Amino acid sequence: MTSLRPGQTLSADRVARIVEELQNSAGSGVPSATIFVPASDTDTTHAITELGRDRQGVEWMSALEQAGSRPLRSGSGVAAFRIGDVGLAILPPFPLNFARLSEGIDAQPLLSLLAARLTVGVALVRLGRYAVAIYEGRKLAVSKTDTRYVKGKHHAGGTSQRRFQRVRENQIHRLYVEASGVLERQWRPWLDQLDYVALGGEAATVNGFVKECPVLARLAPITLERRLDVREPNRASLDQVGAMLYECRVYPLRWDT
Fold first, then answer.
1. Number of domains into which the chain is organized
2. What range does the domain containing 195 cover?
3. pLDDT tens digits, residue range 55-78?
4. pLDDT in the model for residue 92
5. 214 assigned to some structural domain
6. Do 111 and 123 share a domain, yes or no?
7. Which terminus of the chain is more exposed, N or C, with fewer CB under 10 A?
8. Do 197 and 107 reside in the same domain of the chain?
9. 162 or 246: which carries more pLDDT confidence?
């Protein structure tokens, strides 16, 4: 755990190996404990405080606070493990829906989440290009990518700039309309099966697309808070997104003794 960097992104397979190693280490008689904090709780700090101290009298808040603000503001909840005076907080790829404080390394809920074959709709958008897809687990089930020209920025002033801006805004709107139509057609057979929706691309462009896409508006309750770090919405990126969906962020923990 000491070699891990705070906020480091790890594959689901590596996280599973680390957690299994923690389970094996806990069998050596060193005091250990596990805490799960749900994503649905609007006050993570309150949830951790309510769970209290583990059997060794160790409280979790100080260690999580030292790890930074991200674990306490995770949109997916937190799974944290302690062995002696060190531990690891893991931000899972999909939301936790329960709170638990238990003795020992209680890894099964996290491992089950990482192994789950969830159906996820993915929309990637940047100016000039978009990609929509459905994943069954890490497998790409259906996809569609395309391009639509959008003018670059214009640095001149006056009437010319205003005219240019109107044209550009209209092109962006057409991109959103086209991408929304493709998304609706590609996702239609899967809408009743979707577990989650994941978005990625340029932040401002994605935010604009969400406002103009009726399907995404309806699916807001199952849209993941985290955004996929994808620069180019193309087929090559889609081939990588299946594994990316299951990545976790990790934060080493330490308790003062």
1. 2
2. 119-244
3. 667 777 878 887 777 777 778 989
4. 95
5. yes
6. no
7. C
8. no
9. 246
User: Does 174 lie in the same domain as 228?
Assistant: yes
Query: Quick one: 70 and 146 in the same domain?
Result: no
Judgement on whether residues 186 and 110 belong to the same structural domain of the protein: no
Pick from 94, 115, 136: which residue ends a domain? 115
Model-level pTM greater than 0.70? yes
The verdict on 98 and 132 lying in the same domain is no
DSSP string, the chain: -TTPPTTEEE-HHHHHHHHHHHHHHHTTS--EEEEEE-TT-S-HHHHHHHH---TTS--SHHHHHHT-STGGG-TT-EEEEEETTEEEEEE-SS-----EEEES---HHHHHHHH---EEEEEEEETTEEEEEEEETTEEEEEEEEE----------HHHHHHHHHHHHHHHHHHHHHHHHHHHHHHGGGTTT-SEEEEEE-HHHHHHHHHH-HHHHHTGGGEEEEEE--SS-SHHHHHHHHHHTT-EEEEEEE---
- Report pLDDT digits (tens) over 19-30: 998 888 876 678
